[in-house]
């Protein structure tokens, strides 16, 4: 089918916290603000408070509710914290007292609704026939949707006040009886909108029977965004971020030292997402690729800069494009009797799947299998217990470490492993392990946690800053 005349654009949480600064530059751009659909994430930090902190794992409402024993109401205090944080966020954004008041009413109504739902559910599950754990995924879905409903509502209010015909499109399924698929939800939500006359501000959370959280987990706004772009045949899908997609985290190495990627491919984007630095959610990337919708990632605060194009291209200049890191827990299973015996790996994988531990990377030799995983220490301990039960003779070591990775579309003949190790050694940093794969798109250095940030700076200097200076690479 032919592409439409509109774009679908996503604004991430960090940028949403400053959405007032984007009003006249990004949202109301040029003479005609229309023919664009905006999909928004919750304001920065809100989903962390609703569920659990994405990086530290600190419990939010969901995690506290899931763990609560009878008479433990700590989740209620957490829900109140969400309410306060939401009100604080929109008070900083909306100028008109009438809008602030409407937004506060909206928050109170939704939070109160969620509170009643959780209390009722708790009560219901005190009867033997209803098991709370069978309903927890629904609780997770309901809580997630609160964050995006709020940010979309506030953004639409702000734009209407500025004279734009903006429309709040709530896909979160609030008080909705329907049970529809993601595609049906999107189609229903957008059915009566004329994008040439109206600016839809759509919730990045979409309620659907398959469960958006359940299927895609955190970062789900990009899935909603990609689905909308694919279904409406957008001419382009654009993700607006706080910075350009850069050669390293600008907050870590200084924005002035980083380089905008300019152009990269889905392979690199997948590696980034595996390491928690989401350029784009892998499922969202797949949807856009299949629908043949071009994807761009821009800096929300530099609307005139075209940003980074992501496609299927192979790099024209070989080299490292980005350095990123992730805190991991390594689970090393050593068993002398492992040599030549099958079944260890499968058993370890099963335990990890059972306890929802995400595997980032792995290595093995004759008698040792090591997985580098993301997940709470508590779930990793459960994995350890299961493996120990199944293989009583195995020695299992669990350690907290970080993977620092150098990634690029084409790392052939770049000696990234050797040069990286030399640079880290010269800087006096201890590398625990390192590995490259024959596909030549990434090289991983395993570092002690407290040296990861330093390692990023050292590798960035070696592979990006020095090369730039030497003129090896054209600036993007
Ligand atoms: N290579 C990188 N390029 C740009 N930002 C990065 C990079 N690595 C880490 N970041 C960090 O990601 C943070 C969140 O960025 P952004 O994508 O806008 O967030 P959100 O998930 O809220 O959309 C930024 O504050 C920045 O510090
Ligand atoms: N707010 C959700 C969904 C999302 O995609 O957020 P962001 O665009 O800020 O990564 C989350 O934190 O998971």
UniProtKB/TrEMBL annotation:
Q: Where is the PH domain?
A: 1-84
Question: Which enzyme class, named as a word?
Answer: transferase
**Which UniProt keywords are given for this protein, alphabetically ordered?**
ATP-binding, Kinase, Nucleotide-binding, Transferase
Q: What is its EC number?
A: 2.7.2.4
Named from the GO MF annotations, one term is:
aspartate kinase activity
Instruction: Tell me which domain of life the UniProt entry assigns to the organism this sequence originates from.
Output: Bacteria
Asked if the Swiss-Prot or TrEMBL record annotates the protein with the keyword ATP-binding, the reply is yes
Is Cell membrane there in the keyword field?
no
Which family, according to the similarity comment?
A: Belongs to the aspartokinase family.
Name by which UniProt lists this protein: aspartate kinase
In its UniProt entry, the species of origin is given as: Maritimibacter dapengensis
């Amino acid at each position: 089918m032919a592409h439409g005349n509109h774009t679908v654009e996503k604004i991430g949480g960090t940028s949403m916290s400053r959405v007032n600064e984007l009003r006249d530059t990004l949202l109301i751009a040029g003479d005609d603000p229309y023919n664009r659909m905006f999909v928004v994430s919750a304001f920065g930090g809100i989903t962390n408070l609703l569920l659990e902190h994405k990086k530290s794992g600190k419990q939010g409402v969901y995690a506290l509710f899931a763990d609560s024993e009878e008479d433990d109401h700590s989740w209620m205090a957490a829900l109140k914290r969400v309410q306060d944080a939401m009100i604080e966020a929109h008070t900083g954004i909306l100028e008109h007292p009438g809008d602030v008041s409407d937004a506060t009413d909206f928050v109170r109504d939704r939070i109160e609704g969620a509170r009643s739902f959780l209390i009722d559910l708790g009560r219901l599950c005190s009867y033997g026939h209803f098991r709370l754990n069978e309903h927890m995924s629904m609780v997770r879905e309901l809580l997630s949707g609160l964050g995006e409903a709020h940010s979309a509502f506030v953004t639409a209010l702000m734009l209407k006040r500025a004279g734009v015909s903006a429309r709040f499109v709530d896909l979160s399924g609030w008080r909705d009886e329907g049970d529809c698929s993601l595609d049906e939800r999107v189609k229903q939500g957008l059915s009566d909108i004329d994008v040439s006359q109206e600016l839809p501000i759509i919730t990045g959370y979409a309620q659907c029977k398959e469960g958006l959280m359940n299927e895609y987990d955190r970062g789900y706004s990009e899935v909603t965004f990609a689905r909308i772009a694919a279904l409406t045949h957008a001419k382009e899908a654009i993700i607006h971020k706080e910075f350009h997609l850069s050669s390293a985290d600008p907050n870590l190495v200084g924005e002035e030292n980083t380089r905008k990627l300019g152009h990269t491919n889905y392979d690199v984007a997948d590696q980034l997402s595996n390491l928690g630095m989401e350029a784009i959610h892998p499922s969202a990337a797949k949807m856009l690729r299949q629908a043949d919708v071009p994807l761009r990632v821009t800096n929300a605060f530099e609307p005139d800069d075209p940003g980074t194009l992501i496609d299927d291209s192979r790099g024209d200049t070989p080299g490292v494009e980005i350095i990123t890191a992730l805190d991991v827990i390594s689970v090393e299973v050593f068993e002398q009797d492992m040599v030549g015996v099958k079944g260890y790996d499968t058993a370890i994988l099963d335990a990890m799947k059972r306890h929802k531990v995400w595997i980032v990377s792995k290595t093995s030799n004759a008698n040792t299998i090591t997985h580098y995983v993301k997940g709470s220490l508590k779930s990793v301990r459960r994995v350890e217990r299961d493996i120990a039960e199944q293989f009583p003779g195995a020695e299992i070591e669990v350690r907290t470490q970080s993977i620092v990775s150098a990634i690029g579309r084409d790392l052939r003949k770049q000696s990234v492993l050797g040069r990286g190790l030399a640079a880290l050694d010269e800087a006096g940093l201890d590398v625990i392990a390192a590995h490259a794969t024959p596909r030549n798109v990434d090289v991983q250095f395993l570092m002690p946690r407290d040296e990861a940030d330093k390692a990023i700076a050292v590798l960035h200097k070696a592979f990006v800053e020095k090369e730039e200076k030497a003129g090896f690479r054209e600036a993007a």
